[in-house]
Design brief:
- Two copies of one chain form a homodimer.
- The first copy, chain A, is built from 13 helices and 18 strands.
- Chain A starts with a strand and ends in a 6-residue tail after the last helix.
- The longest helix of chain A has 16 residues, at 16-31.
- By secondary structure, chain A is of the alpha/beta class.
- In chain A, the strands form four sheets. Chain A has an eight-stranded mixed β-sheet, sandwiched between helices. In chain A, strands 14-15-13-16-18-17 form a six-stranded antiparallel β-sheet. In chain A, strands 4-5 form a two-stranded antiparallel ribbon.
Chain lengths: 417, 417
């Protein structure tokens, strides 16, 4: 017997028929003898509808009221799933964030979970064999007693945090894909599903655009060493043997990886724009003069590259922003020209970032060099490079994205047989 | 300066534009110097949608889960109205039933309010000039910490209970009609809006089919002597002078009535069916033998008429049920024939109940006699009669309903000039 958290996203609970399907997934695990807590998102489309109403009521809405409105979506799903489970003869009750309670920070609309009291839920596993159906994405501000939400995609984070709080053996994330792939299968038909991936690698993949899991949920899994299993919610619930390993990807600590690939996957992101600030003074405070105004304008800066100055006097600094913020970013920098003191702004709106990820890189030299050579061979110009311990990224012209991803996918032996 | 509760129903908050309109109504009262708590229903149609989902998930759903699902409708409206008020520069925050808390009984889906702690709301009137926007229809079961709902139309009850808890001067019910009429204006074009009506009379009018207010809210108003003002939510908010008396009907204690009409209004209900059980033994237990099986079958019995037995041995008993339950009621009685021991069942599916209401009747003899004579003059046969202190009802053939209502409306001088 084990203890499981099962998380179902919006498309998995989009209507009553699908909620019944989810109930059958849960019943299968209960029948197999597991203690189960389920975390649910709002029915797909509901959160967008509620957010749109808040915006319509006032573009500058109070985040505390936004949270009260938007958290209602998960409340509905949790009650409906509890009803559907009871209809299958499974003991179940719904839990809202404030009922557990899931205590969070006071950063309404993007709160962080501080503490979860899993005591009553665990007690009911033992006393009543009761499934806990928990509204994801939400909590309570313990100072004010008001509803908070964790920000978009927060239900993944709720699930992993609850799994840690109730000391679950595993957190199963049911989603509309059947696992984590070496890269996007729509771009590279030879992309392979990974059986296992280390938390660190998944963090890089998730934050670099593989939209399977919310980044914070992976961080939380890593901190608490909670294995996260990504699997499909569209498999026929009764056709799955609960005692066999189903198709999916287990995100776990490196030590539990049987085999360690040097490279785990290739991520890419097309909606990037590049700005290069030329001949800035090579002295403390210049970077701040550039990035503080951008932060104030709520522009998210991604890649930052600054080379060592050649003459010790001036240098160039390149960074990327989301394409949607390109014009605003250029205006912001231009407005701060006097303070920054640059000679020229170069920019390109049509760039893509391609990243190669693998915790195995740490122990292998020359991994990146191979990539530069292979891209050059294909005539793909590299605009900028950044590296970290377990990944490196190159900035290229968007038109070459697919070619670059496929080239690197083959280069590192990720293609399926 | 006064303290007001303003309650807005589903059609008044059906979309963001109408919610903005409600915000302007509230702002008008705040600008006039009043302390305001607003009680809102779910956007019209939302509650029906949520109820349908619960039924679809399982016809035998858990009422506690039903409550968690259905209460979300008012949660959404309360947050949206708080946002709309803030956009107008009015300090406001939303309150869910569990936040105040509004403590109720544990009768999920039809809970009764036990206690409301209005302290924090009143404190914020003084400290912050803050409008309290309260989700109607809901509360919390203090034993279990679970969400409860008050049953359909419960937001009226929430509003009056909150008005009593915060010691408001008045509870304004904004609705899609501009007050309480002497009878249905669609039937009697000469129907008049009442400026004032006593709680007792309103109770009879409400329970007899004038669908302006939930019966329980009127009972609560009577118990706490809380004046309830029924007014239109569709008037242009800014065209109303907050210092003048707007069109509407004040429901208040009899002592506050300037003039006391003998008859206040005429109510009627067409969807009735009549069953007469003939020649039953005139002994204790017979009525129970009839009505216990009907109650078990969840059939609501309305009018009950039993005359004094002529021979001391047998008597007849007549009762009415909703037309929708007519066939089931006949079957239920027939199935219990041995136990009841009756000679014959007579029934009529096409009957209407017309009621004349007025607390002034208490002190006036012969009010009913006038009606019987007037109806006879029109050739309307009276099938049965019941009376209470402040009303009497006659059962007639449905075809004569309009004629009877108009006749009685004129007879008692209710027609407008």
């Amino acid at each position: 017997m084990g203890r499981l958290v099962m998380k179902f996203g919006g498309t998995s609970v989009a209507n009553i028929e699908r909620i019944r399907n989810v109930a059958r997934h849960v019943k299968r695990e209960v029948d197999a003898g597991h203690e189960v807590a389920v975390v649910v998102s709002a029915m797909s489309g509901k959160t967008n509808e509620l957010v749109a109403w808040c915006r319509d009521a006032s573009p500058m809405h109070d985040a505390r009221e936004y949270d009260a409105v938007v958290a209602s979506g998960e409340q509905v799903t949790s009650g409906l799933l509890a009803i559907a489970l009871q209809a299958l003869g499974v003991q179940a009750r719904s839990w809202q964030g404030w009922q557990i309670p899931i205590k969070t920070s006071d950063a309404h609309a993007s709160a962080r979970i501080l503490d979860i009291d899993g005591g009553e839920i665990v007690k009911r596993f033992a006393d009543r064999k009761e499934v806990a159906v928990i509204a994801g994405f939400q909590g309570i501000n313990p100072q004010t007693g008001r509803i908070t939400t964790l920000g978009r995609g927060g239900s993944d984070t709720s699930a992993v945090a609850i799994a840690a709080a109730i000391k679950a053996d595993r957190c199963d994330i049911y989603t509309d894909v059947d696992g984590v792939y070496t890269t996007d299968p729509r771009i590279v038909p030879k992309a392979r599903r990974l059986d296992k991936i280390a938390f660190e690698d998944m963090l890089e993949l998730a934050s670099l655009g593989a939209k399977v899991l919310q980044v914070r949920s992976v961080e939380l899994g890593m901190v608490h060493n909670m294995p996260i299993f990504v699997r499909s919610s569209f498999d026929e619930p009764d056709a799955i043997d609960p005692h066999a390993t189903p198709p999916g990807t287990l995100i776990c600590s490196e030590e539990e990886m049987m085999e360690s690939h040097v490279v785990t996957g290739i991520a890419f992101s097309k909606d990037e724009a590049q700005i290069s600030v030329r001949q800035i003074e090579d002295k403390p405070g210049v970077a701040a003069a550039i990035f503080v105004p951008l932060a104030s304008a709520n522009i998210n800066v991604d890649m930052i590259v600054q080379n060592v100055s050649e003459d010790g006097k001036t240098t160039d600094l390149t960074f990327t922003v989301p394409a949607a913020d390109f014009d605003r970013a250029k205006e912001t920098i231009a407005a701060a020209r006097d303070k920054i003191g640059y000679a020229r702004l170069d920019s390109a709106g049509d760039v893509a970032k391609v990243s190669v990820i693998g915790s195995g890189m740490r122990s292998h030299a020359g991994i990146a060099a191979k990539a530069f050579a292979a891209l050059a061979e294909r005539g793909i110009n590299i605009r900028a490079i950044t590296t970290s311990e377990i990944k490196f990224s190159v900035l290229i012209d968007t038109a070459y994205t697919e070619l670059a991803v496929r080239t690197l996918h083959s280069l590192y032996g990720l293609d399926k047989a």
